[in-house]
Each structure stands twice: as C-alpha cells, then as structure tokens.
Specification:
This is Thioredoxin family protein. This protein has a single domain, classed as 3-Layer(aba) Sandwich (Glutaredoxin), CATH 3.40.30. Helix content is 55%, strand content 12%.
C-alpha cells in the first residue's frame, strides 16, 4: 500500500492546479478522466461554477479551526476526485479551506481514473466512490480516510436507496439542495470527529 501511495503522491497536484486543470479542459469542451461525454462536460461546468462560489462563501467554524490547529506534525490530505463529481464539488472547497488553516497540512489531489490502483485500495462498499480523502502522516503512513460525502448525506443516500431501490435524478437534486443548506457544516463535523479520534 505504501508504495502505491507514494507513487500516486508523485502524480498529485495542488488544489489551485486542479481548479486550473478543470478550467483548461472545459475550454476544450472536456471533463477530467478518460471517458468523455456531453453530460460529463456539463457536470464539470456546473461543478466548476459551484466550487468558485463555495471558495468565496464557505466559512470554517471556530470549533473546526481549533481542532485543525491542534495538528502539530506534517500531514498530507490526498484526495481522489474528478471534475464531473457533484459530491467532490461540494466538499473539496471545504477541505481546502480547512487545510489552509494549518501549515502542517498539505492538500494534494489526484484524479481517480488515472490512479485506479490507489482508488481500489480505498473502495466504499465495493465501489470507487469519490471524493475520497486519505490522511497520511509525515512518513506517508495511513492515519485515516474520509468520503465520499458527509455522514449525514451518506445516511440520506442509503435511506433513499432503501425506499426507492435506485439512486436517480431526484436524489441528486435533493442532495444538492441539502448541500446548499448545509454550507459545509457536516463535512466540518466529520473532520472534527476524525481529528479527535487520532
């Protein structure tokens, strides 16, 4: 696992480089990843707009800030994502804002479909769900993982699937409405729990 992690870290980019990559691809009417379609490009465009808005509006709570500032050792937060992923667009700006609060945290991003060897080490219920955050210590040992969405939203998705049997367009819409109301609070709550555990 450690070799895979270290190899993938070599391919990682910063948050700003990721934003720039998505923007560059959109200018070519493309999304990230090997599979290209009009739908994926449209999702990427929507997500790029969302992220730009969230980068300006997300507020990190005092409680989250206090917890983040307790990190005294160099830590890497490596996130697997793709530009077309709606959950990533809602959570990456929050993760980036949290990482910015402490110089000991380095946020790195890799694209899922170019790094399936890594993704397959961190499946969610057998699926390649993103975003997936992998927290590493200074020696690249695994500390914890998070993703693909806050615990509250995960329960919402599971309940919907139980009731309706499938995850459809209505759920995606419901989820986006929930994210808009939540404003990153549930993601912060999850991270507080993770940090207090370690």
């Amino acid at each position: 696992m450690k070799n895979t992690l270290e190899n993938n870290l070599k391919n990682s980019i910063s948050y700003q480089e990721y934003i720039d990559l998505v923007k560059k691809l959109l200018a070519e009417h493309k999304s990230t990843g090997p599979n290209q379609s009009e739908d994926l490009t449209n999702y990427s465009l929507l997500n790029s707009t969302r992220m730009k808005r969230l980068d300006k509006t997300i507020k990190i709570s005092d409680e989250t800030t206090a917890e983040i500032q307790k990190i005294k050792e160099p830590t890497t937060w490596l996130v697997l994502t793709e530009g077309w992923c709606g959950d990533a667009a809602q959570n990456l700006p929050v993760i980036n804002k949290m990482a910015d609060l402490n110089d000991n945290i380095t946020l790195k991003i890799v694209l899922r479909d170019e790094n399936l060897d890594l993704m397959d080490l961190f499946l969610t219920n057998g699926g390649r769900a993103i975003p997936k955050l992998i927290a590493l210590d200074k020696d690249n040992n695994l500390l914890d993982t998070w993703g693909p969405r806050p615990a509250v939203a995960t329960k919402m998705v599971a309940d919907y699937k139980t009731k309706h049997g499938v995850l459809d367009a209505q759920l995606k819409e419901d989820l986006q409405v929930w994210y808009n109301k939540d404003k990153g609070k549930s993601t912060q709550d999850d991270f507080i729990k993770l940090l207090q555990k370690n």
